[in-house]
Amino acid sequence: MYPPIEPYQTGTLKVSDIHTLYYELSGNKEGVPVVFLHGGPGGGVDAKDRSFFDPVKYKIILFDQRGAGKSTPSACLEENTTWDLVKDIEKLRQELKVDKWHVFGGSWGSTLSLAYAQSHPDRVKSLTLRGIFTLRKSELKFFYQEGTSHLFPEAWDEYLAPIPVEERHDLILAYHAQLNSVDDETRIKAAKAWSKWEMVTSKLFVDPEHVAEADKDEFANAFARIENHYFVNGGFMRDGQLLAPQEIDKIRHIPCTVVQGRYDVVCPTTTAYALKKVWPEITLHIVPDAGHSSREPGTAKLLVEAANKYADL
Strand locations in 191-298, DSSP E? Predict the structure, then answer.
């Protein structure tokens, strides 16, 4: 990854009566525009996200999606759907006077990248995706109900702890009730447990520093509430919509590189493989010694290489 850099411009963009987005620009003011779509939903951007891109070649655009990071109001679920976010990306593109841009996203960011590209294929020069997630019921069930639980039983016990035994047949729904509780203590306790489950399982080698993020009240509240809101609503789309051949046909002409950790137990490799089967034109790299995180060495290296390749398009 490239050395750390600071933004040369930050700003806010009012996208509805409720929501205002934070965005930042770094790299080359006259460079090729690339927009970074963060994960979660609700995760927010991080300074390290700038470092996937060559700052000499790229105009690097990062923003926090509705309710996440520095966008306001924090953790707000009103007017917060996949299609609201797709519209926001377009509003940001227009605000920044960008004609076409490269789109880069991992995990939920890959979901949003596909949804945006399928809605606005004429605005996307390339797609660089990591940890493919298409929000199918089977994917949610694997991570939040039964699947990853078999690999991380001790962490799974902590994830189960806030939920009464009689409600554990549908954990996403059970968490929904607690994450929207009027009682602050109930809500924050549930938010930290939900967030910690993802932090513990997202790297091949558990990273204590990453896990510690889940203990921050404001981060956990936004991350857990927004994620759960999207998941309990099936991403506000038809099951399997993003993989449907008629949707893929809209973007088949767009160059696309996918980087997938073999041992990703948050967004398992089966989804990236399903994307490759319906869209054989993509370049799919399966990293043999990586989990879900974009920061694992083999994954980061391939993401940077893909971004470097597309900079000259």
Answer: 256-261, 283-287
Confidence of residue 207 (pLDDT cuts 50, 70, 90): confident
User: What is the percent of the chain with per-residue pLDDT over 70, rounded to a whole number?
Assistant: 100
Catalytic residue among 120, 229, 285, 292: 292
Domain boundaries, the chain: 9-135+236-310, 138-234
- Whether the model pTM is above 0.90: yes
CA-based R_g, the chain, Å? 18
- Residue of 267, 206, 238 lying closest to 40 (CA atoms): 267
Answer yes or no: 169 catalytic: no
Does residue 202 have an active-site annotation? no
9-135+236-310: CATH topology: Rossmann fold (3.40.50)
Instruction: Quote the CA–CA distance of 289 and 287 in Å, as a whole number.
Output: 6
Asked about 26 being catalytic, the answer comes back as: no
CA distance 190 to 204: 25
Average pLDDT over residues 116-135: 98
User: Which candidate in 51, 264, 293, 294 is catalytic?
Assistant: 264
